[in-house]
Specification:
With about 120 residues, the protein is mainly α. About 85% of the residues lie in helices and about 0% in strands. The chain contains four helices and no strands. The chain is elongated. It starts with a helix and ends with a helix.
């Protein structure tokens, strides 16, 4: 497994935990904050699980689910920004990191599918 994706997803999860704390304490927002905490930390957890997948198909499945969670996280970030729960600068930083994860995961999915079809 690419250690870049492991470290980026872990760092992203830590940022999401920080966002969750901010949303709960400063914004008194308790519903959307739990949604983004769940999806934003799931990305790294699924990548970690994929490292020890039982087969290439299992690996692909876990990485695909991580990609879906990253896409969901981007949705929650946009919603939090557009509903004025988070400022633009926080959104831009987190959205940039989330988009990077999405691109890397999509590339891993594409490569893995090509390798499985050989």
């Amino acid at each position: 497994m690419n250690s870049l994706i492991v470290s980026k997803s872990y760092s992203f999860a830590l940022s999401i935990i920080g966002l969750y704390k901010f949303l709960k304490t400063e914004q008194k927002e308790f519903v959307l904050s739990k949604q983004i905490l769940r999806s934003g930390t799931a990305v790294g957890a699924l990548i970690s699980e994929a490292e020890h997948a039982q087969s290439k198909a299992d690996f692909l499945n876990k990485i695909n689910v991580a990609l879906k969670e990253a896409n969901e996280t981007k949705y929650w970030l946009m919603l939090l920004k557009d509903s004025h729960f988070i400022p633009e600068n926080i959104f831009l930083s987190l959205a940039k990191n989330c988009t990077e994860l999405i691109k890397i995961l999509a590339s891993i999915v594409k490569t893995t599918k090509l390798n499985l079809s050989k």
